[in-house]
Amino acid sequence: MHVLLLGTAAGGGFPQWNCWCACCRIARRDPDAAFPRTQSSVAVSADGHRWFLLNASPDVREQLTRLPSNNSVPAVRHVPIEAVVLTDGEVDHSLGVVLLREAQCLPIYCTTATRSILENDSRFLTVARAFTTLPWTELRLDAPVELRQRDGATSLAVEAFAVPAGAPRFASVSEPGHTVGLMVRELATGRVCAFVPGCGDLSPSLLDRLALADILLFDGTFWSDEELVAAGIGARTAREMDHVPVAGPGGSLHQLAALPCRHRIYTHINNTNPILLEQSPERAAIEHAGLTVGYDGLRIQI
Ligand code: MLT
Ligand code: MN
Ligand code: ZN
Fold first, then answer.
1. What is the C-alpha to C-alpha distance for residues 147 and 122, in angstroms, rounded to an integer?
2. How many CA atoms, within 13 angstroms, populate the side-chain half-sphere of residue 14?
3. Geometric angle at alpha carbon 18, from 29 and 277, rounded to 5°
4. Protein residue closest via CA to atom 5 of ligand 1
5. Residue 261: its pLDDT value, please?
6. Which ligand is the nearest neighbour of the Cα of 242?
7. Model confidence at 211, in pLDDT bands (50, 70, 90)?
8. Across 2-11, 19-28, 73-82, 282-291, least confident range
């Protein structure tokens, strides 16, 4: 299985257009000290040629240029992804569906709760459907679903599982399944990549599930619970925004450090998070614990 991190920033990207926090200032002044990042999205593939997108970010156009180019494209128009799998209906995770409207056909995998948010609240599916067909496959919680390639073959399956989070703030209803994590399994080898870009808390049962992943891509939005408050940016804590912080009591770092996963990688990293600074003590703490701070273009084959 091939896993390619297309984007590793939280909503807004890095540096964020309207932000002059310490990290964004450094990123603008010295990109070698803090690499720029696009909004989080992952591509997975069994063969390195046919790719499935996990979330479709507002930066999808630029991100798709990172996929290995296919010189044997048989037609004038060719969509280089097989389908899009969505964790939720947040803008930074799903706007890319609208931006891919030039596709003649764009298969979508998501829960019914996310589908109804995309139909009725953001209306992203409604808008995109005016341009393209969007075959939908339902993701039920805790039930693996095969990911079908355009040629009909399957070599990966995906399982959605609920994670602690609120529905998007523009959602008119909050139904179970509005926010999930994904386990992508390669059918031939049983290898698993877990993608959890937003998670408000780590329960023992969730940790047991994540322990089964060979590659874990996890919510690295905030370093500390008070991060946005301390920076004078917001009034809500990380946990109140449904992102368990990396550090501090009950933080993700020491809990993920105990998992046996071969690769444990933070992604969906907010621009205020000091782990984005290549030389920061916070970055060193991540690496000392055996984890990795994801970056755009990071590719792993297992
Ligand atoms: C989040 O990750 O907290 C949400 O996607 C918020 C957003 O960026 O809109
Ligand atoms: Mn997000
Ligand atoms: Zn910033």
1. 25
2. 34
3. 40
4. 90
5. 98
6. 1
7. very high
8. 73-82
Give the distance (Å) from ligand 1 centre to CA of residue 189: 33
Contact 94, 118 (CB under 8 A): yes
Residues 6+ apart with CB under 8 A from 284: none
Indicate whether residue 11 lines ligand 1 (CB < 6 A): yes
Output the six-digit token pair for 207.
């940790």
User: What is the bridge-based pairing of β-strands 2-7 and 41-45?
Assistant: antiparallel
What is the Cα–Cα distance from 116 to 113, expressed in whole angstroms?
5
pLDDT of residue 73: 79
Task: Report the alpha-carbon distance of residue 291 to residue 283 in Å, rounded.
Answer: 10
Residue 103 has which token pair?
Answer: 């596709």
69 pLDDT higher than 90: no
92 Cβ inside 6 Å of ligand 1: yes
Write the CB contacts of 176 (distance below 8 Å, at least 6 apart in sequence): 113, 141, 162
The residue whose C-alpha atom lies closest to atom 4 belonging to ligand 1 is 90
The mean pLDDT of the chain is: 97
Ligand 1 close to Cβ of residue 96 (< 6 A): no
What six digits make up the tokens of 139?
A: 């993701």
Within 10 A of 192 (CB to CB), how many other CB atoms are there? 20
Whether the predicted model's global pTM rises above the 0.90 cut: yes
The confidence score (pLDDT) of residue 74 equals 76
**pLDDT value, residue 75:** 86
Say yes or no to pLDDT of 15 above 90: yes
